[in-house]
Structures are given as structure tokens and as C-alpha cells.
Amino acid sequence: MELTPANLYDELLQLIGTTLETGRKQAIQAVYAHNLETYWRIGRHVVEFEQGGKAKADYGAGLILRLAKNLSLRHGRGFSLSNVKAMRQFYVAYPKSQTPSGLLSWSHVVELLKMDDPLERAFYEKQMVLERWGVRELKRQRESGLFLRLAASKDREGVLQLASQGQIVEQPTDLLREPYIFEFLKIPEAAALSEGELETRLCDHLQQFLLELGKGFTYVGRQYRVTINNTHYRVDLLFYHRILRCFVLIDLKINDVQHHDIGQMNLYLGYFAAEENVEGDNPPIGIILTRHKDELLVEYATYGMNSQLFVQKYQLYLPNREELRRELELTLAESKE
């Protein structure tokens, strides 16, 4: 294309816009980092004062309340009772060498401080940075027990690695969660729902669905047509995973998965590998999402079959996090014996 003054001017506009956007992001991150450093230091001042012997006796349990009132009068907003408590807790929970990433806002940190388990807190801190969650996304993932669901299938070493690194996607199995949680659809557990209705609702709540699927998923379409010898088939939901560089095919089932459902997904995978993949694409992944799963049937039906075909459960309500936590504690305890 021939360069003209108009083209050069458009390039200048684009360059300035990119520079401005980058500068604003860096400024916001600098503010976040400065705020966290400041609040951590305030927390340290409070704890050191409390540990001062006579000072602790003189002020006792009312210290935080008194500080909140006086700091609010002197310095304005930002020093509510809950905020001052959080600053103190921030210092206690995070030794200086373990201060959270400067990419996180104070609101992120306040949510992290609600978690008593340091492993759980460390996981969500890492995952927020990896997937760039806002506070709302963090709250949703914590309520859905994401860490506990991911940790349930791991041994002690795997759990510790998950807490220290977050969920790193390097292979197809790293995509999996069980169960997947679709509470955002607000469908009663006993409601009669067709597969088509479930598919429609998931597409209507695509942002929340992508959050549940995890980092790297790009939506391609629904009811994607596959034609073999003039016979038409349709994949319920089609995604492309930009990290693993492959198609991800999802079929939805409201009843028990049957062996022919698995065979059909394997057919789709063969088709995509031969007909849809282009240079640089990796073999496709198939996930059948079902309310109920017969483990033995799945084992036999997938015998000798594509290793990138998975049958995973989903549920329409939030999991019992205490039960998941007990399973995690049992895993950690057994590995110490």
C-alpha cells in the first residue's frame, strides 16, 4: 500500500493512542503498588504499637476503633473501622518478602485477607495476576471453590505447586475442572431443562461461562456444522484455546453420558484434526459436560481412544466448600504420614 500523508497521520494517531494507554496502565499499577506499601506500613505501625507492653494495656481492644475515628477526622475517607482492621491484618498475613503483586488493588487484597488458609490465599493471588481478574471475578471464583476443585484431584506436591504458581495451562488436562459450576445461570437444581436450553443460557452468559472455563478460551460459535459424506452433525459449542493453540469442542448432556456420545465426540475430533486444523494448530480437545457420569462406562468407552477426549461433570449450584476443604485437608494429612 502506498504511504500517503493521511496514512502517516493515522499511524501517528495509533502510536500516540498506544503510548497513552500504556502510560495510564503503568500509572495505575504504580498507584496500586504505592497504596499497598503504605497500608502495609500502617499495619506494621499498629502491630508494633500493640506489642509495646504498657501501650497495649492502656488502649486494649479499643485501639483499632479509636484509630479509625481519629484517622478519619485527620485524613478523610479510607480509614473506616474495617479498613484499619484490614491494614493490621495485611501486615500480619504478609511478611515483607511475601507482599502481594503490585498489579493488585487494595480491594483485591481485602478479599484475599478474608481467606484464612494461606495455600488458598496464595493460589487466588497468583491466579488473579495470571487471568487479570477484577474483584467481582475473584469473589465468584472463591465462592465457587475453584482452588478446592482444582486441588481435589492432586497429591500434596500438586496442591503446593498449585498454591505457589496458580493454574498454569501447559497441557490439555490443565484445562479441566470437576465439577464445572454454572450457578450464574440461576437454574433451580430440580428444573427440567433441555440440552438446547442449557446451551442457549450458557451463550447468553458467555462472559461468566468463559470465566468458569478458565484462561485462554476464545469463543468460535455454537451448533458448529460438521459434514461427513453429506451427513450433517453439529458440535454444541466450539472454542479455540490460544495458549494450547487448538480447537476445544464441548458437547452438553443433561442425562447420563452413553458410549455413543463418546464415540460421536471422537468422530468430531478426527474431523477437526483432518479438516479444520491449519499449520501450527495442535490436535483438538473434546469435552463432554454432563450432570452425571458413570466412571466405569467412561473408562471402557474411551479405552484405546483419543487421549484428548474428556468427560467432566457440571452442576447448577455452588459446591459445598467445607466438604471440599475436608478432602483437601485429608490429602495433605495423608501425604505427611
Automatic annotation (TrEMBL):
YhcG N-terminal domain ranges (all copies): 17-149
Cited Gene3D superfamilies: 3.40.1350.10
Family matches, as InterPro entries: PD-DEXK-like_domain (IPR053148), tRNA_endonuc-like_dom_sf (IPR011856), YhcG_C (IPR009362), YhcG_N (IPR041527)
Ranges where the YhcG PDDEXK nuclease domain occurs: 174-328
Molecular function, one GO term: nucleic acid binding
Protein name: Nuclease YhcG
Species this chain originates from: Paludisphaera borealis
Lineage of the organism: Bacteria, Pseudomonadati, Planctomycetota, Planctomycetia, Isosphaerales
